[in-house]
Amino acid sequence: MNVAENTSSVAVRPATLDDMETLGMFGAELMSLHHEWDRERFLQVDDMTHVAYAGHLRQALGRPDVIILVARDHETLVGYAYARMESFDYMSLRGPAGVIHDIFIDQSRRRNGLGRMLLDAMIAALTSRGAKQIVLSTAYRNTAAQRLFASAGLRLTMVEMTLNVDR
């Protein structure tokens, strides 16, 4: 099966309040993946993480600076992306930008072109809101995502380093 066949029934649309429960589960899974890559750097998921994550996205939904997109195959959500239009950030040493915070595809649907579909849709949405620069961060060990982002034209610009200090 080729990519076009795998994505032909998938539509990308803005998220709604009805999507939040599923997006909370996706967010918790995203956090869990990061924690598996580096248990000292990333938060551990607990039984309520999906509720907290859904609440975080619910609060952001509808804000003029926020874009939350979902990928839906028929009636099933298979992924989401979350981004914000942000002003100058002197901590990150950058000017105004569209900042992609999350891109997630359900594990059973990965490597079928859906991540690229969602990334392209988010880039288009940010560009339509005036973004002249788009930035994102990815876990050091998430090489699949890094390949996806590079294939869309994003380039390496920063490397985060972490030191845990026991006191």
Can you characterise this structure?
- Residues 1-5 have low confidence and may be disordered.
- This protein has one domain (3-151): Gcn5-related N-acetyltransferase (GNAT) (Aminopeptidase, 3-Layer(aba) Sandwich).
- It has 167 residues and is α+β, with helices and mostly antiparallel strands.
- The chain has helices at residues 3-7, 20-37, 49-60, 114-128, 143-151; strands at 10-14, 66-73, 76-86, 97-105, 134-136.
- The protein starts with a helix and ends in a 16-residue tail after the last helix.
- The chain has five helices and five strands, in the order H-E-H-H-E-E-E-H-E-H.
Task: Return the CATH architecture.
Answer: 3-Layer(aba) Sandwich
The stretches of 5 or more residues where confidence is low (pLDDT under 50) are 1-5
**What is the structural class?**
alpha+beta
Fourth CATH level, the homologous superfamily: Gcn5-related N-acetyltransferase (GNAT)
What is the level 1 CATH name? Alpha Beta
- Total number of distinct structural domains: 1
The radius of gyration over CA amounts to 16 Å
Strand order of the largest sheet: 1-2-3-4-5
What is the arithmetic mean of pLDDT?
91
Annotated CATH topology: Aminopeptidase
Helical content stands at 25-40%
Q: Tell the overall outline.
A: globular
Report the sheet with the most strands, covering strand number, pairing sense and barrel closure: 5 strands, mixed
- What is the count of β-strands? 5
* N-C termini distance: 54 Å
Give the DSSP E fraction (strand runs of 2 or more residues).
Answer: 15-25%
SSE ordering: HEHHEEEHEH
- Tell me the number of helical segments per DSSP (H or I, 4 or more residues long): 5
